[in-house]
Amino acid sequence: MAARSASPAPAAAQRRSRLTPEREREIYGAVLDLVREDGYEALTMDAVASRTKSSKATLYRQWENKPNLVACALRADQRVTLADIDTGTLAGDLHEMRRRVGCDVDRDTELLSGLGHAMQRDTELERTVRAVLIEPELQSLDGLLRRAVVRGEVAEGNPALEFVPHLMLGAMVAQKIIDGREADPAYLERYVDAVVLPALLTG
């Protein structure tokens, strides 16, 4: 399995914040509320400053630009992470992963869908969200799969390793399109057992 090199997080995400955690949460909440209300394209730093009674100078000093502010707000709001999953077996890890994803799959669907469309048109937003939000989770998934290889559960050269993120995301997208409903925990459990684990354990 090829190692995935994470994109460096934007400088503002790495800089030590001068704001209190409570103030950061307030700003992040306002940012996501504004995106829900008017969409990403209509969001402005002026609107965030007005909603949070902040100065634009403070916002730019902390986050540099709108894409980074939105990406950091999404990261702070993220309830599901793969970073600490390590049950000791591949099956256990994948089922813990699908449990976490399944519990959060219908949360803020409209917000995330709208941002997904915006990312297709805004390369800076796409790059920043990938660096701040997507790449850390892909790194965690790579680590999960690498441990399965080290334990001898999965062959080093199994070609399915490359496609595990696509398999998991594809399950959720396909269920919505084909069956007209979100991928619930029972569906994801059957999918992991019928598709993902066989692909990894027999390759």
Automatic annotation (TrEMBL):
DNA-binding region ranges: 44-63
Superkingdom field: Bacteria
Domain HTH tetR-type: 21-81
Region (Disordered): 1-21
UniProt xrefs under InterPro entries: Homeodomain-like_sf (IPR009057), HTH-type_TetR-like_transc_reg (IPR050109), HTH_TetR (IPR001647), Tet_transcr_reg_TetR-rel_C_sf (IPR036271), TetR_C (IPR011075)
Transmembrane segments: none
Single GO molecular function: transcription cis-regulatory region binding
SUPFAM superfamilies: Homeodomain-like, Tetracyclin repressor-like, C-terminal domain
Gene3D superfamilies: Homeodomain-like, Tetracycline Repressor, domain 2
A Pfam family per the record: TetR_C_11
Keyword Ribonucleoprotein: no
Regions of compositional bias (Low complexity) in chain numbering: 1-14
Keywords in alphabetical order: DNA-binding, Transcription, Transcription regulation
UniProt-recorded name of the protein: TetR/AcrR family transcriptional regulator
Originating species: Streptomyces boncukensis
